[in-house]
Amino acid sequence: MSMDVTIYHNPECGTSRNTLAMIRNAGIEPTVIEYLQNPPSREELLKMIADAGLSVREAIREKGTPYAELGLDNPELTDEQLLDAMLKDPILINRPFVISPVGTRLARPSEVVLEILPDTHKGPFAKEDGEQVLDAEGKRLV
């Protein structure tokens, strides 16, 4: 099946790797954007966040980032200020964002991606940690 899917990917992130593997398990070879090297534009980032139904603050990654040092937990900060920080330091963009013709999701946990993929999975799928997500028929377990 041909479906135009894009993943904003960080190969160092287990959730991102699991999500990419699930997309490929559906028989789709997505466009992989390693967003730390190729961050989205301000417009692309805003569109992804809005299309995923998130607030800008919900799209910020706190763990393993300079979130606290930059004072981004300050509730007075505007969306524009938060976006500025995310674009200046893309590690602050939560991951992985996945865009398909069906919709856009922040795939956390990774199986959220199944909401926007066709039901074309080939057999069982387990995450890196061994958690089974799809059964032998490729049907969702979680």
What is the general shape?
A: elongated
- Helix run count: 3
Question: Order of strands across the widest beta sheet?
Answer: 2-1-3-4
The structural domain count equals: 1
List the secondary-structure elements in sequence, H or E. EHEHHEEEE
Major β-sheet annotation = 4 strands, mixed
Number of strands: 6
Which regions are unreliable across 5 or more consecutive residues at pLDDT < 50? none
- Can you say what the CATH homologous superfamily is? Glutaredoxin
Question: What's the architecture, going by CATH?
Answer: 3-Layer(aba) Sandwich
The end-to-end distance, rounded to whole angstroms, is: 24 Å
Strand content: 5-15%
Q: What's the Cα radius of gyration?
A: 16 Å
Mean pLDDT: 93
Query: Any idea of the CATH class?
Result: Alpha Beta
Predict the CATH topology.
Glutaredoxin
Compact summary:
This protein has a single domain (6-134), classed as Glutaredoxin (3-Layer(aba) Sandwich). The protein is α+β, with helices and mostly antiparallel strands and 142 residues long. Helix 1 links the parallel strand 1 (6-9) and strand 2.
